[in-house]
Specification:
single chain; alpha/beta; Rossmann fold; CBS-domain; 45% helix
Length: 340
């Protein structure tokens, strides 16, 4: 027995954290099973559907009623963000005036678990009269919607996730997954690139990851800590301190990057050195430097540089174009730019 903190009444069922956790896990497993089962039912019509969407000269219209309508809205947003013009068309509003948005060049994706939703059936009837292809995402293959669709994707589920099998859960999750699968297949067929994706996501962290280039954040010219590899360790340390990036890039006689000298290289060197400090400080930096360091080009995405730094656990990255050292990127610059 437990007391409800809001009503003050005594509840007869005690839900432990373990039982709640298992209930939630069971729901996730059930929905995953429904998606896996649907993936086995896909047929060759999927290729025809994706080709139809790819050839669409107008817009992809998505419709659904109630909870399924929210799934249709999300599907429309996903298609738009991946370069396929799409719009959600509310079935009830459509048959009360919004049909003016429809053109003969459109394609309709209609979502309905029962396949008997009155507003959707009226909408698909209008579409068929106007020559607009209809693709049904349906939970009942014997339904009116399934029979009146040009193509059908089988979205039936054995049950919903709640004990009464009433709340739209497994059915809506499956339709969401199927609409995502269609969007990804359409991206692949259209050859959608990361550059195109960036054009539709210019804002926020995602936009920065897709648009920000190394050239936008790198230090250049006199801000690059560099010297000939024969420079003495004493002078190398002075240059590292002056530039404040914790490193010095070393070049050979032809100006090509040959190595990098970092604070870490210096610490390890001093820890292992057993001779006189004066002798060490007069040694050429090339005997201590890390050879053939990881590099990046100025035209690459800054997000690639960040990933490389994280993978190698380094904080600076030399920028090399056609063998020439043209800049340096520091981890702090990428953080300031909002990439991490």
């Amino acid at each position: 027995m437990s007391t409800n903190p809001i009503s003050g009444k005594t509840d007869s069922v005690v839900c432990t954290s373990g039982s709640v956790r298992e209930k939630m896990a069971g729901t996730l497993r059930l929905e995953a099973q429904m998606i896996a089962a649907a993936s086995e039912r896909l047929n060759d019509d999927c290729g025809k559907i994706v080709s139809l969407l790819a050839a669409c000269g107008g817009r992809i219209l998505l419709t659904g009623m109630g909870k399924t309508g929210f799934i249709a809205r999300k599907a429309a947003a996903t298609l738009c963000s991946t370069g396929a013009p799409a719009i959600f068309l509310h079935p009830a509003e459509a048959i009360h005036g919004d049909l003016g948005i429809v053109t003969p060049h459109d394609v309709l994706l209609a979502m309905s678990n029962s396949g008997e939703t009155e507003e959707i059936l009226k909408l698909t009837e209008y579409m068929r009269r106007g020559g607009v292809p209809v693709v049904g995402l349906v939970g009942n293959l014997g339904s009116t919607l399934a029979c009146n669709s040009d193509f059908v994707i089988d979205c039936r589920v054995e049950r919903e996730a709640d004990e009464l099998s009433l709340a739209p859960t497994c059915s809506t999750t499956l339709m969401l997954a199927v609409s995502d699968a269609l969007a990804i297949a359409l991206m692949d067929q259209r050859g959608f690139t990361a550059e195109e994706f960036a054009r539709y996501h210019p804002g926020g962290t995602l936009g920065k990851k897709l648009l920000l280039k190394v050239s936008d954040v790198m230090h250049v010219a006199s801000a690059i800590p560099n010297a000939d590899q024969s420079v003495s360790l004493r002078d190398a340390i002075e240059q590292i301190s002056r530039h404040g990036l914790g490193c010095l890039f070393l070049t050979d006689g032809e100006g090509r990057l040959s190595g990098v000298l970092t604070d870490g290289d210096l610490r390890r060197c001093f820890q292992l050195w057993t001779g006189s400090i004066d002798q060490l400080m007069g040694s050429p930096a090339e005997v201590v430097m890390t050879q053939s360091p990881l590099t990046i080009t100025s035209g690459q995405l800054a997000a690639v540089g960040l990933r490389n730094m994280e993978d190698r656990q380094i904080t600076v990255l030399p920028v090399v174009d056609n063998g020439e050292l043209v800049g340096v990127v520091h981890l702090h610059d990428l953080i300031k730019a909002g990439l991490a």
